[in-house]
Each structure stands twice: as C-alpha cells, then as structure tokens.
Write a structure and sequence with these properties.
alpha/beta; 4 domains; binds molybdenum atom; binds ligand MGD; 4Fe-4S; disordered N terminus; formate dehydrogenase (NAD+) activity
C-alpha cells in the first residue's frame, strides 16, 4: 500500500484554511445550531482531512494517515481503543479525531529561536492553550533562569546537568515529583520509573489519577486486577452492551464500528448518559458506502440519567437479577465471597429512591431492567461519567457485583470494559508508573537491578499540588501532558507550580504548563509517535521502535516514519536516560551502575529488563515483534480466576447514595468538545452538540434556565460552591438550552477546571470530581473576551471572598 491510495479519499475538494495561527476568537462568532443525532459520516472524513491538510499539507497527510494503526505503522495517539486483528484492518483504520491528533503532532509549524526572544513568560502565560498549541512543534531545549523573563536556548546535555544538580541538592528525594501523561511508550515509562525509584521516591503522579484511577482501585479490590476483562471480539458476539458515562462518538470513534457490528450480530445497546450524545444515538460508518449515506441507529434505549444516578441504577439491576434468579450459582459458590450480604442488601433497594436518584421514568427503568435480565451475555462499558464522581469507586464495584452475580465475566461475549483515555495510559501503569506500586513489583525491580527501591507510597496528582503549595515538593517534571490545565483548581495549581525551585517539561508542543513555572524552568522537546527514531552511533546505528498497550491489554509495536521535527531532537527514552545519568552518576551503589547509555542506544535492552520485571512480559522483545503483538494475561478474563485471598472475587455492599444539591445549585459536569484532545484545543466547534466557533458555553435544562430567569443566549458566570472560603468563578458563559436532565449542567474542560476544588476528590481513588462540580449561576455583567482556549488566570478566577470584583456580585 502506498500513499497514492489516499487519492480515493476526497481530500482535494476540502476547503483549506491556511495562514497564521489565530489567537482568541471573538465571542460574536459563537453560533449554536441543532445538535446531531448521528456521529461520523462523510463530514467526519472531510473534517479529518481538512485538519490534516491544514497542518501537514496533502502529501504528508496521506502518508501519515495511512500508517495509522497499521501493523507496520504507528499507534494512534488519539485513544486507547484496540485495533482489530491484523486480518481485519481497513486501509484507513482511523477516525476523524485520530486524524486530528496526528495532524496536531505532524504539523509543519515550528517554534524556533526567535519565538523565545519575542515572547516573555508573562506574555505566554496570558495566552490560551489553543494559541500556544497552534505555534507548532518545539525544536530545541530552552531554559528560563531565575529572575529572567525569557526562555533561552540550552543544549540537552547542559539541561540534564542542571536537572541533576537540582535533584542532588534536594533535602530528600520525596521533594521531587515526576508526572506522566499517558502517551509515553512502555520503554520510556519503564526507564522513567526505574530512574525515579533509583533516585529514591515513589512520587509518580500520572494522568490516571484524574482519569480511570477509580476503575483501577475498584477492580483491583473486587476481581484482583485493575483492568477491563474483554476482548474486542466479545463485542461481536454478545446480547447486550451498556455504555455508561462515555461519549464514544467524540472520544473513541472507532468504538462505534464495534458497536455497529455488535448490533448487526443481534446485540442490544443501552446508553446511560445525561446527554443524548450523537455517537450513541446513531452512526454513519464512513468506511462503508451505505454507512456514509444512511447510517445506523445505535442505542436501542437511551437512559437520560441524572448526574451520579448510576450507583442507584446498577443496584436496581442487582435487585432485578436476584429476584429473577438470573444468577450464576456455580461461580458465586465456588469463586466469590460476600454474595449473601450483597443479595440481602439489593433486595431492599427501593424503587422510588432509584427513580428519584436516576431521574428516569418507570417505563425507562422497566425497559432497561427487562433487557438486563433477559440477556444471557452482556458487556458494560464506562469512562469519565462514572469515574470522576465522589462515589465512583462504589459505582464501579456495583457494576462488578452485577457481572459477578450473573456470571457475565470471563465468558465469551461478557465482561467489564472500562474504556481508557490516553493511548498508552494502561501501558504506563503496567510498566510501573504508579505512586502506589505493588510490593511484588518492587521486589522484582530490586532483584533485577540490585538496589532497594523506596517502599512508602508516593504522591498522586492532588497530593503533588498540595506538596508544591506547602513547599515540601520543590521539583516537578512533566513527562508529557499539561499538568497545570489538566489539574483541578487552576489557580491553586498555578500558585503551587510557581512555588517550586525547578519545573521541567518534556513535550512535543507548547502549552500553559510551560508558561507557569518554578524559579528555574526547562523545556525539553521530544519526538512524537509519528516520527522516525534512529539511535546509536556508527555501524550500530539502528532505527528504534517502541511498544504500547491498549485498553484491552494488547501490547504491540509502534513505528513512526516522518522526519523528526528538527535535527537532534531526542526521544523520551534518551531524555530519561540523559537525566538519570546526570543525576545518579556519582552514586557508589547499584543505582550508579545502571547502563543508561545502553538504554538510549537500543530500546531492546530496556525490553529485556521489562521481561524480567513486569509480570506477563516474558520474552517481551520477541513477542512484541509479532504482527498485532500479544495480549497480557488477565486471570478473570482468561480462566475465571481471581488473584485475591482464597482466589475469590469480592461482592461489595455499598450504601446507596447520590449527589444532591441545594435548590439554587446545579451539578456541573466538565467534559470534552468534539474539537479537543484534553487540554489541546484543535478547533472551536463541537459539531455534534451544535456549537460552532466558541467554547464558553454552559448547557442547561430549559426549566433550570427559566427558573433563574435566563434564556438561551444569555451570559452567566459559573460560581463554585465549596466548604472553604475561596470563591471559584469561571466568568461569562453563554447559556445553551439543551436536552439535559433537570439540575444537571455541562460545560467544557479545561475552562471550568478553576471550579473543581482541590479537595473535592473521589473516595479511595483521589480522582478530582470533574463530573460532580457544584455551582450556582449569576448573570454576567461583562461579556467574555471570548478566549478560545483554556483561559488564563485573567479570565478564569479564584478569589478570596473579600477580593471579589464588584461586577462579579450580582
Ligand atoms: N477526541 C478525543 N478523544 C479522546 C479525548 C479527547 O479529549 N478528545 N480524551 C481521551 C481521554 S484521556 C479520556 S479519559 C477519554 C474520555 O472519554 P469520555 O469519558 O467519553 O469523555 P468526557 O467528555 O469526559 O465524557 C463523559 C461522558 O459522560 C457523560 N456523563 C457525565 N456525567 C455523568 C454521570 O453522572 N453519569 C453518566 N452515566 N454519564 C455522565 C457525559 O455526558 C459524557 O457523555 O477519551 C480519550 N479520547
Ligand atoms: N475538569 C476536568 N479535568 C480533567 C478531565 C475532565 O474530564 N474534566 N479529564 C482528566 C483526564 S481523563 C486526563 S487523562 C487528564 C489529561 O491530562 P494530561 O495528559 O496532562 O493532558 P493533555 O492535554 O493530554 O496533554 C497534552 C500535552 O502533552 C504533550 N504531548 C503530546 N504528545 C506527546 C508525546 O508524545 N510526548 C510528550 N512528552 N509529550 C506529548 C503536548 O505538549 C501537549 O500539550 O486531564 C484530566 N482533567
Ligand atoms: Mo483520561
């Protein structure tokens, strides 16, 4: 297959917007139209190609997109949805949003020396992430020295020395924190956690802490492993799929193809979501001619659940299967514990309480219950609508109860399917990026490398922010990601980062975390997945590949083909190795003799260590070379066994609770638009929800708006409600009257992160409660500056109550 295959795709007819990157758009441009009832289709292909052509030009677009998710190509950065097995891949195995993710990285725009001379740090801190991202790829390391208001060029080696010096001078290794976003490859992640533990701390916060941590905690405690239990093939032969708290049309578009096949083979689909998300309602598959034109209705039943009503819903399903005797008695008796207590508990679940908590009608509840009871096999999928609530761990345990009771686990067509976010977030965890590593992992690390790793738990994301705020954490390194904008309580996080001695970012592109920094700040550009990675010297020169793990535990190779963004830009593995060598060089124990230079030259040396340390990875270097890779073991999925005391899975009794708010208050969920990747803003449209050229919108139920004397098009400030005396305000959002349940509002992340209190975390997992933010509205007096991206400190505020500007008091 060559790039010319792409001429079959309609790119030449796509209008191309070129020219200089645009800064913040003006608010007048914001347009609201009817939401869509279908996702994908021909428009998706057109939009995908337009983004590609704008950023990369037509040739590079074709070359790149056709490598996406192919056996000899690179893994899409877009999401963690698995690829079909090699025999069943399409020529174009990508989606609109995967294409945007690739275009964002493979852009031809570059940040060069004059950029740093032109812009002060203050200037950059006042820009939106949208503007910063549009400047292009980082090409050269830079440093901001104490007292200076500019970044200036520095070599990688000098930067490594500065970092090493800083790390050696800290009073304790626990005064440093090492963040990871979920794009980091397995090789880089393994080397990174090894370095951090050799240095002496478990302070390895990661994006998982804000994402699927609640899943990891709940599943580890109930089935003995914190990962989902299905294969992609399970979707093709099942009776029912429940999709709860997830918007696949935007965030996992390739999942729609799996749902479409499931339906064709007879499965029913229930969507559990406050919003009638386009992808869940219908799908026009752009890979088939019929799909392009006609499309498929996907959900057989949409349950417009109230925010956080899911625990009640799943408890009700529990009661229903118990009463119907739809139980797997053998599994319960032989391989689980706690069933009787759970059974007794769910038998008492009250229908009226469930109806109140979920906001569903009796008819909706009955129809859903009948489907669950009548389906011999079923899969439950979930994402952030479940994990980012205070009681998220309880809800996921309740989902697990239902699967254990009915035996819908470890059999074909059934299982638990948490759908992960970042493309390698699951792999990073497997490789040991975790502030609470299991002891057996540390034992194996010790045996392999001959040093005693630290045993106490480290800081997660929120504790890292607290540590920086309180002055215990003096050093921060971000291996990718955008810590400032992804974290809760934006202004608190901003102050925390500024309170450190040094911040280091290893990044492909600029974002606000490069502008809000410690006393010394370093930016180290790195290669992305799309790029050729050639390491070694002289005759040893060899092209490297890396490996990743998807949401269904498939591990496989990823190889980029494009030229690096600039000569000399290093891979993440080499950067980790450089920092580690500069930091640990003078150690006289085993940590001083790890062969970092060898790692940087040949990643198979890292893979040989992975094979020895990481469970399930024997013979790793060989297995990942097989087309399609290999699947990591998962005892519940593979053999219905549970790596827990007595080998038994655990039923959990959780009290029924639901987030309730005062009369004037609303529950705000902070979610993604169709034109963003987390904090990276690709554009200003949320096509499926009918939002164009703007992001500062708040979706409200018509009655909630009317009760407040508001109409569609009015502007309001969102005001956080929390127990401390800090006022959190996100000013000037346009009201969009929308099909969302009463009391449930929605707006985009990260503009609204300022409203998420640092201390508002999920129980047991510590995840910020980004889907359960309590707010009130007040009429805005000033119309927004229309800032397009994530908002700077200037437009997103957090004030002590006595500092509130007069116009904020209505
Ligand atoms: N294009 C694109 N792809 C992405 C990302 C991206 O930003 N852009 N991000 C990646 C990452 S890191 C992740 S974690 C995933 C995120 O994937 P999702 O979890 O789909 O992302 P969100 O936009 O946060 O959507 C949450 C969904 O949950 C619903 N919801 C909110 N509250 C509740 C509730 O209380 N109950 C129920 N049942 N539903 C609720 C919302 O209406 C929304 O449909 O996507 C990954 N893929
Ligand atoms: N309010 C609210 N907050 C949330 C969420 C929410 O739903 N609501 N969702 C949470 C979730 S699920 C997540 S996962 C986090 C995401 O948090 P992060 O992972 O920290 O954020 P991203 O926006 O994905 O990071 C984007 C940056 O990563 C860098 N980057 C991209 N590719 C690479 C690469 O290959 N290598 C390196 N080194 N750098 C790269 C670029 O510089 C880019 O600017 O946000 C969380 N925050
Ligand atoms: Mo995520």
């Amino acid at each position: 297959m060559g790039w010319h295959d792409a001429v079959k795709l309609p790119w030449p007819t796509i209008p191309v917007r070129t020219g200089a990157p645009t800064d913040d758009v003006d608010d007048d441009a914001l347009r609201v139209t009817h939401p869509h009832d279908h996702a994908a289709g021909a428009t998706a292909v057109a939009v995908a190609l337009r983004h590609g052509v704008e950023q990369m030009g037509p040739l590079r677009t074709a070359q790149t997109l056709l490598r996406l998710n192919q056996v000899d190509g690179f893994d899409c950065q877009g999401c963690a949805w698995p690829d079909p097995d090699p025999k069943h891949r399409h020529t174009a195995e990508f989606c609109e949003n995967g294409a945007k993710a690739v275009a964002e990285e493979a852009t031809r725009r570059r940040i060069t020396r004059d950029f740093w001379a032109r812009h002060t740090l203050d200037d950059l801190a006042g820009r939106t992430d949208y503007w910063l991202g549009q400047q292009g790829r980082l090409t050269e390391p830079v440093v901001r020295r104490p007292g200076s208001d500019h970044y200036e060029p520095i070599s990688y080696d000098d930067a490594f020395e500065l970092i090493g010096e800083q790390l050696r001078s800290l009073p304790t290794p626990d005064a440093a924190a090492f963040y990871t976003s979920g794009r980091t490859s397995n090789e880089a992640a393994f080397a990174y956690q090894l370095f951090v533990r050799a240095y002496g701390t478990n302070n390895l916060p990661d994006c998982s802490n804000m994402c699927h941590e609640s899943t990891s905690v709940a599943l580890a405690q109930t089935i003995g492993i914190g990962k989902g239990s299905v294969h992609l093939e399970d979707f093709y032969d099942t009776d029912l799929i429940i999709v709860a708290g997830q918007n696949p049309g935007t965030n996992h578009p390739r999942m729609l193809s799996a749902l479409e096949t499931a339906k064709k083979n007879g499965a029913k689909i229930i969507s559990v979501n406050p919003l009638p998300e386009a992808g869940l309602m219908g799908f026009k598959n752009p890979q088939t001619p019929k799909g392009m034109l006609i499309g498929e209705r996907l959900s057989d039943l949409h349950l417009p659940i109230r925010a956080n009503g899911d625990l009640a819903l799943f408890q009700w399903f529990g009661r229903a299967v118990v009463e119907a005797g739809r139980l797997d008695r053998a599994l319960i008796a032989e391989r689980t514990t706690g069933f009787e207590a759970w059974e007794e508990h769910v038998r008492r679940v009250d229908r009226d309480e469930v109806l109140a908590a979920t906001g569903l009608t009796s008819a909706q509840l009955d129809e859903a219950t009948a489907l669950v009871v009548a389906s011999p096999r079923f899969i439950t999928c979930w994402a952030m609508g479940i994990t980012q609530h205070k009681n998220a761990v309880s809800t996921i345990k309740e989902i697990t109860n239902l699967h254990l009771a009915t035996g819908a686990i470890g059999v074909q067509g059934s299982g638990l399917c948490p759908v992960r976010g970042h493309s390698n977030v699951q792999g990073d965890r497997t490789m040991g990026i975790w502030e609470r590593p299991p002891q057996h992992f540390l034992d194996r690390l010790r045996d392999e490398f001959g040093f005693e790793p630290p045993r106490e738990h480290g800081h997660d994301v929120v504790d890292t922010i607290r540590g920086m705020r309180d002055g215990h954490v003096r050093f921060f390194l971000g291996m990718g990601g955008n810590f400032l904008q992804a974290s809760p309580d934006t202004e608190a996080t901003e102050r925390a980062l500024r309170n450190t001695a040094m911040t280091v970012q290893v990044s492909t592109k600029l974002n606000r975390s490069h502008a809000v920094v410690g006393e010394t700040a370093i930016v180290l550009p790195t290669l992305g997945r799309t790029e050729r990675d050639v390491r070694g010297r002289g005759p040893q020169t060899r092209e490297q590949f890396v490996t990743v793990e998807d949401s269904m535990s498939m591990v496989h190779a990823s190889r980029g083909r494009l030229a690096p963004p600039a000569p000399g830009v290093l891979s993440e593995v080499s950067i980790v190795a450089g920092i580690a060598a500069a930091t640990l060089r003078d150690r006289t124990d085993a940590t001083g003799s790890i062969d970092w230079a060898g790692f940087a030259q040949d990643y198979s040396t890292v893979r040989h260590h992975i094979a020895k340390v990481v469970p399930g990875c024997d013979d790793y270097d060989a297995k990942v070379r097989a087309p399609g890779g290999f699947q990591l073991p998962h005892p519940p999925r593979d053999t219905r066994t549970f790596d827990l005391p007595d080998g038994r899975a655990v039923f959990t009794v959780v009290p029924l609770d639901v987030l309730t708010v005062g009369e004037d208050e609303l529950v705000l969920q902070t979610m993604r638009s169709h034109d963003q990747y987390n904090t990276t803003i690709y554009g200003l449209d949320d096509r499926y929800r009918g939002i164009h050229q703007g992001r500062r919108v708040v979706f409200l139920n018509a009655d909630d708006a009317r009760d407040r004397g508001l109409a569609d098009g009015d502007h309001v400030d969102l005001v956080g409600v929390w127990e401390d005396d800090v006022e959190r305000v996100a000013p000037s959002f346009r009201v969009v009257v929308y099909d969302t349940p009463r009391g449930c509002a929605a707006a985009y992340y990260p503009e609204t992160n300022a409203l998420v209190p640092l201390d508002s975390q999920a129980e047991h997992s510590g995840t910020p409660t980004s889907k359960g933010v309590i707010i009130t509205l007040r009429r805005a007096t000033a119309v927004s500056d229309g800032s397009a991206g994530s908002g700077s400190g200037a437009s997103v505020g957090r004030h002590h109550k006595d500092e509130v500007q007069p116009h904020h008091l209505s």
